[in-house]
Write a structure and sequence with these properties.
The chain is an alpha/beta fold. It is 20% helix and 20% strand. The longest helix has 19 residues, at 476-494.
């Protein structure tokens, strides 16, 4: 084996051979294990040790070669085949077996038959003129999707491409995404992952992918072309196609823990290399991992080995795979200091903030983990944005009629200035992968997770849903109200300050039959149903219309918080105002009325974008609202009304003081005209 310089960890093919480098300072010897097509293993020791890195170069070894490592020494067990933490591709997964589970330091059973193989990949790729769409935050509309589930049932995608990276790049799929008007797809985890032993024992498997063990490798199960490195090329082709369509690619990444689980879990890679360097341990019991993730272990990113692994992985996905940003699962777990407390000035956030590659991409935090001090909403520093669960809870409570008035709603509608430094820092959502779909949110009062083999104990219990007292399919009047509630949620989400995120399939009325934690349901329950109906076509049309409305006016896309200050040249008019049903601005005492269920929000987008009045009424009975005086508009046109199945204008030319009737649980968007139109009230298109 030849000499190589350990500049980069992992297996790097140079056209004539492959350089290998593995950080394993406690090993006295490191063997690279090569596997042929029949599974026969050949071992060669890495000949050089430099600064704790074992390295060497294999002439004639190239892309597609399966490999792994075995380490020797007092703290190592050569019977355990270890995956390269820096592998660009991985083939296979692991099977629960006593030879794999636990640390196995004194177990001489060979784990190779039960664990995946690392694969040498070809990094060359013709990116042509590819460049990031670089969508400004103020214009961003996120769309959270699952690579497999989104296209697995798509009728226009060829069978062999359904549920794959290639399927996501299909013209029919790209056409749907661009037709909606979204700007950025947020992909559920695509790092190579495996299933938890408990799931496998119940005949289930991990579907969402929050169980990674390959931070550099695209998940092989999503590849139409194969798992011997083809997944890398296919992923790049997908990114190139999405970019060509003007769509950003955001990855949901899980660096907070690995698939090795707790101390009884499988030994796949880091545990066998140096678990004391990579994982956090319980200070009160050094034989157990510290667990602030709920998944058995916590990666220690406050120390150099874990920090380098995460940072190198992030840079790889930006520089070599051309992704545009990341959503960090359980982000506070990564921000924890050596003794475990969350530190917003600690090693991970500091390294990320100063990195010249990473500070220019989108960074989104899930701002909580499962430890008592893990809820960190609003505390991540620039340039981070954060999932805003208080937006979700507030909007759900309002529309189901359980809110404490409208005070908090007003803050959430305008970007949550009580929580964040700017509207762009708030990623607003009503539904996400973790919870009910929009259809199920308005159809079920209780979760139905029996298929998960956990006795329906898993998943969020406080679902804040509202279903007319009928679970599942209902009579026509119930279904009509559910569709209206769905439209109410979409109107609120897409006309709020901040960054909206839509759950894939909500625009198609996707249901999971009441399962609000379908993490292990790799079947039709989780897949997007592309069958067409009047209801799905109407919901898609509403989604498109609302995104178009958002894009067309700066009234909905504000870089800074509205301050309610007067507008130049517009006597008495401010850039933000709030109204009660009587058409008068809300006074301070009325803000504290806990029973208030009707709110009018006036927003101004400037001379070129127009002014709007959004009425939201969450009462059980209909209401009549008076339109504000001429200060706010010389006339008003109803642009959208959620009582209608399709997004189309309603009454035009309404005058100040006119009464507008609102159906129970409905919203109406009005344009405020500043010169009275000759059209009379009551006209319709």
């Amino acid at each position: 084996m030849g000499l190589s310089e350990p500049r980069d960890l992992g297996a790097i093919w140079d056209g004539a051979g492959t350089s290998l480098a593995l950080w394993a300072p406690n090993a006295q010897r490191a063997d690279v294990c090569l596997f042929d097509d029949e599974g026969h293993e050949t071992r060669q020791p890495l000949p050089h040790l430099t600064d704790g890195i074992w390295h060497g170069r294999l002439t004639g070894v190239g892309p597609g070669q399966r490999y792994g490592f075995r380490l020797h020494g007092p703290r190592c067990n050569p019977a355990k085949l270890l995956q390269d933490p820096y592998a660009r591709a991985v083939e296979g997964t692991y099977r629960p077996h006593a030879a794999v589970l636990g640390s196995g330091r004194h177990d001489d059973r060979d784990s190779a038959p039960y664990v995946p193989r690392s694969v040498v990949a070809d990094d060359t790729f013709d990116w042509a003129e590819d460049r990031s769409p670089a969508v400004p935050w103020v214009d961003t509309v996120l769309y959270e999707m699952h690579v497999r589930g989104f296209t697995r049932c798509h009728p226009d995608v060829p069978d062999g491409q359904r549920g794959t990276y290639a399927g996501l790049a299909h013209p029919a799929v790209l056409g749907h995404l661009t037709g909606l008007g979204i700007t950025s797809v947020e992909l559920l985890p695509v790092h190579h992952f495996g299933s938890e032993p408990r799931l496998l024992q119940h005949g289930l498997r991990n579907y969402w992918g929050y169980n990674s063990f390959g931070f550099f490798a695209p998940h092989a199960g999503y590849s139409a072309g194969g798992a011997r490195g083809q997944q890398v090329t296919e992923f790049k082709s997908m990114v190139r196609a999405l970019h060509a369509a003007g769509l950003e690619v955001i990855l949901d990444v899980v660096y907070n823990h690995t698939a090795e689980g707790d101390e009884t879990g499988p030994t796949l890679s880091l545990r066998g290399i140096d678990d004391a360097a990579y994982y956090r341990f319980d200070p009160s019991d050094p034989t157990r991992y510290a667990d602030v993730t709920g998944c058995g272990n916590t990666l220690d990113s406050s120390r150099p080995p874990g920090l380098r692994l995460v940072m190198d992985s992030l840079r790889y996905w930006v520089e070599c795979m051309h992704v545009d940003g990341f959503r960090f699962d359980l982000a506070p777990a990564l921000a924890r200091a050596p003794r475990g407390a969350v530190d917003m000035r600690g090693a991970f956030l500091a390294a990320l903030g100063q990195d010249p590659v990473l500070r220019r991409v989108k960074l989104i935090a899930e701002p909580w983990d499962v430890a008592p001090d893990g809820y960190q909403l609003g505390r991540f520093p620039p340039p981070w944005s954060e999932w805003n669960d208080r937006y979700r809870n507030c909007v759900r409570d309002f529309w189901r009629g359980h809110s404490d008035g409208v005070r908090e709603l007003a803050s959430r509608l305008t970007g949550s200035s009580d929580l964040f430094r700017a509207p762009r820092a708030s990623v607003n959502f009503v539904t996400a992968h973790d919870g009910f779909t929009l259809r199920d949110l308005v159809s079920y009062d209780h979760k139905h997770n029996e298929a998960n083999a956990e006795g329906n104990r898993d998943g969020e219990s406080n679902n804040r849903s509202w279903n007319c007292g009928v679970e599942g399919p209902g009579p026509p009047e119930v279904e009509e109200l559910r569709r209206r509630q769905s439209r109410n949620f979409l109107v609120t989400l897409l006309l709020s300050g901040g960054v909206p995120m839509i759950l894939a399939g909500d625009e198609l009325c996707r249901t999971q039959q009441g399962n609000n934690n379908a993490y292990c349901q790799d079947n039709e329950l989780s897949f997007v149903d592309w069958s067409s109906s009047v209801a799905t076509r109407n919901m898609q049309e509403w989604t498109e219309a609302l995104i178009t409305m958002r894009r067309s006016s700066t009234a909905w896309r504000q870089a800074i918080f509205r301050d309610g200050k007067p507008l130049p040249g517009r006597s008495g008019v401010r850039n933000l105002a709030w109204f009660g049903a009587d058409g008068a601005e809300l006074s301070d005492p009325r803000w504290h009325e806990s029973t208030m269920r009707t709110l009018g929000m006036f927003v101004d987008g400037g001379s070129t974008s127009g002014s709007f009045l959004l009425w939201m009424h969450a009462g059980d009975a209909g209401a009549e609202v008076a339109l504000p005086d001429r200060t706010w508009g010389s006339s008003y046109d109803v642009l959208l009304d959620t009582t209608l199945e399709r997004p189309r204008p309603g009454r035009l030319g309404l005058r100040p003081g006119d009464v507008l009737s609102l159906t129970a649980r409905s919203a109406a968007l009005l344009r405020c005209n500043h010169h009275y139109s000759a059209r009379r009230a009551g006209e319709a298109t």
